């Protein structure tokens, strides 16, 4: 089992090193045994990063073995050749430790401002993924496409990883899941969707992989809150955390199950935080989280779980995650001390 995590964006604008606490969390994650940290991407939201690739370069320079990635980068909004250049530089800085997780996003304004078209986001994603692979694996060649065209050229620097940095493709619509199978190296699942929805998407993904002769590879993303005592988490944290998550999910709800959940709430039904969290979050004490991951693995066969500790709150907030530096650092260390080793024992490692 691999474990990765979202890197919370903790900024102190008045400090000489405003991102110091974020960098420190990356080092703590590396020490705890996480394989990868990821950062998200949104424009015009104070709690999100307009340029996650710049931050990842800084994280890569401050770590030794930890992989860095985006989760997700809104690829159709931007010129893929420019993105290829930026990611290749991070690949060199890190010695081959970068992955690019991509998705289409949900906010038309980001497309409009950057000269893209939200209505064409699926087609733009397809072409952009092809261009990334093209410029990373060929030299002195051009491209003629629907959205982007360029003459013969070679992108410099060249990426370290062969054939190229891994491309993780997100999405829950059938077309997006099939795109991940055709053009991605892995599919990013969740984190909003219930386990039942994830399982139905997984059926689509595996079928599409079989059609192309590709081995399925996917990452199950879950929001998380880990404490030493389940009852304390349920009483003091879960209602506030789930409430914040639901506010954000309203902005981006895509599938029928999530829409049905909101319809129940809007009709006045008292849906408990624990019911909402049951199939969507990792939460409670270490033994609870170990059991939840084992259940996910048994029901889906997942072998890579991505945790977002306190993550997923509305991007309009200055900090789009719940918890102080000390609380998040404690969760990361506790996960590394008591959750990750449980799965090493399962495999005899």
From TrEMBL:
InterPro entries: Bact_Lucif_Oxidored, Lucif-like_OxRdtase_Rv2161c, Luciferase-like_dom, Luciferase-like_sf. Keywords: Monooxygenase, Oxidoreductase. This is LLM class flavin-dependent oxidoreductase. The keyword Oxidoreductase applies. GO terms for cellular component: cytosol. The keyword Oxidoreductase applies. Pfam families: Bac_luciferase. It comes from the Bacteria. GO terms for molecular function: monooxygenase activity; oxidoreductase activity, acting on paired donors, with incorporation or reduction of molecular oxygen. The lineage of its organism: Bacteria, Bacillati, Actinomycetota, Actinomycetes, Kitasatosporales. Residues 13-303 form the Luciferase-like domain.
